[in-house]
Design a protein that fits this description.
Elements lengths: L1 H10 L6 H4 L3 H4 L7 H17 L9 H4 L3 E4 L3 H13 L3 E6 L12 E3 L11 H11 L1 H14 L2 H12 L3 E4 L5 H13 L2 E5 L15 E4 L2 H10 L5 E4 L20 E6 L5 H14 L4 E6 L7 H4 L6 E2 L7 H5 L4 E4 L4 H7 L3 E4 L21 E2 L3 H10 L26 H13 L1
Parallel strand pairs: 1-2, 1-4, 2-3, 4-5, 5-6, 6-7, 8-9, 8-11, 9-10, 11-12, 12-13
Helix pairs in contact: 1-10, 4-8, 7-8, 9-10
């Protein structure tokens, strides 16, 4: 039992941490519904659709998995972050768990069958009571997350033994299924590589991959706060930004303002600031981009305005950013991606109830400017309407290649290091 708990507490490191429990409810709700009834319905739905539904599906293609380099992904953003490796490594294939939603790339992923996962649910109740003893509050709040996690590790060990991948490359280090694959790979002696795909916070799990490719000093500093780092660490910048480095925004006049919102932002405040901007700056186009997991119907809420929308499920982050001059957002890693394209990023809190100030430390490190109120935002925009600041060099602490010979060539550097490591 203690061995089970050690494995699963590692798999659930982030979501069962005190830091995650203390986040605003809107952040936690993105992982687990606030309502107990909805959490129970989620478990029931998962049991019927995933656990039982998977039993009747044969989805593996052994010839695409045997002896390959697996690019293991858990989201559309993961896929975008690792796509350069699919082109640079001839024997690399995108791999995901059965039924995992990868957005517009769902049909281009090779799947690992999870039919056997149901066989390991005899572990759930013993694990549940052990977690209750060790982490009572988190277990009561996130029992559905524990339920979902059961069986990944055990099934993935079987898959690794069967297909013997040459190596596994990850773009996620904290989702339960990704951590289960990492621990299974370590148990089976399979090489692992991690490529950072988003901004880091100190509540993430410690780095445990054999090769860790981080974007810059900020990520390294924060991972050191997370715990002991094992494996080789290299700073390579942000490979997924390479294709857009030549498209950095050199406009002086502000013609388009993008608003990046997520589930932590209050609906009323998003609508208020968007509509107020259209009134105060009628000559400026306003583009709203909700997070892919944000299903709120802003179209009806903003009906009758000239605000346009960017569909984050279809349009990549950088394709959105290259169309705007200013980004307005709260606690989101999109600020860094904006600055890399020389898009002026302004931190604006769109949730006055759940205070989570400067979650990523972007204000503290002067990556972004801050507007503490709409009046301050209006004044800031008015002052720079015809002289947008140049900001991309602010990203040097976050992206190691900015301003160097590898600026715009991060993927080249990362690919070189991965090839050396695998061979």
């Amino acid at each position: 039992m203690s061995k089970w708990y050690a494995i699963y507490s590692n798999i659930l490191h982030l979501h069962f941490s005190d830091g995650f429990f203390n986040l605003p409810e809107s952040a936690k709700a993105a992982v687990s519904p606030t309502s107990l009834v909805k959490r129970l319905l989620k478990v029931a739905g998962y049991t019927v659709v995933r656990l039982l539904g998977n039993l009747f599906k044969r989805i593996e293609q052994p010839e695409k998995l045997q002896g390959k380099v697996w690019l293991y992904v858990v989201s559309q953003n993961n896929y975008d972050s690792l796509h350069f490796l699919r082109e640079g490594l001839p024997d690399a294939e995108f791999v995901a768990g059965q039924s995992k939603q990868i957005g517009k790339y769902n049909q281009t992923i090779y799947r690992l069958s999870l039919r056997r996962k149901i066989l390991y649910y005899y572990k759930f109740l013993p694990l549940y009571f052990q977690f209750l003893r060790e982490k009572k509050q988190s277990t009561q709040r996130f029992a559905d997350v524990l339920y979902d996690a059961v069986g990944f590790y055990e099934v993935y060990k079987i898959k690794l033994r069967k297909y013997k991948p040459k190596a596994i490359v990850f773009a996620n280090d904290h989702n339960p299924d990704a951590r289960a694959m990492l621990l299974a790979a370590k148990a089976m002696g399979v090489k692992t590589v991690y490529i950072q795909h988003a901004s880091i916070t100190p509540i993430f799990p410690p780095l445990q991959f054999d090769l860790n490719l981080l974007e810059g000093q900020d990520a390294l500093y924060k991972y050191k706060q997370c715990g002991l780092i094992t494996g080789q660490v290299e700073l390579v910048g942000m490979p997924k930004a390479d294709a857009f480095a030549s498209l950095r925004n050199n406009n002086q006049r502000i013609a388009r303002i993008g608003i990046g919102c997520n589930l932590m932002d209050a609906t009323e405040e998003i609508v208020r600031v968007a509509t107020q901007l259209t009134t105060d700056f009628p000559e400026v186009e306003i583009i709203l981009r909700p997070h892919p997991r944000d299903s709120r119907n802003f179209g009806s809420l903003l009906q009758g305005t000239n605000i346009s929308f960017s569909n984050s499920r279809e349009v990549t982050t950088f394709d959105f950013l290259k169309e705007i001059d200013v980004l307005l957002s709260g606690n989101s890693g999109i600020h860094l991606e904006a600055v890399l394209l020389n898009v002026w990023a302004i931190y604006y809190n769109m949730n006055q109830v759940e205070q989570l100030h400067d979650y990523y430390g972007f204000i503290q490190k002067s990556l972004v400017d801050e507007a503490v109120s709409y009046a301050a935002l209006h004044q800031l925009l008015q002052r720079h309407l015809f002289n947008k600041p140049e900001v991309y060099l602010r990203a040097t602490y976050y992206s190691a290649t900015v301003g160097t010979e590898y600026d715009g060539r991060s993927s080249e550097l990362a690919l070189k290091l991965i090839k050396q490591f695998i061979e």
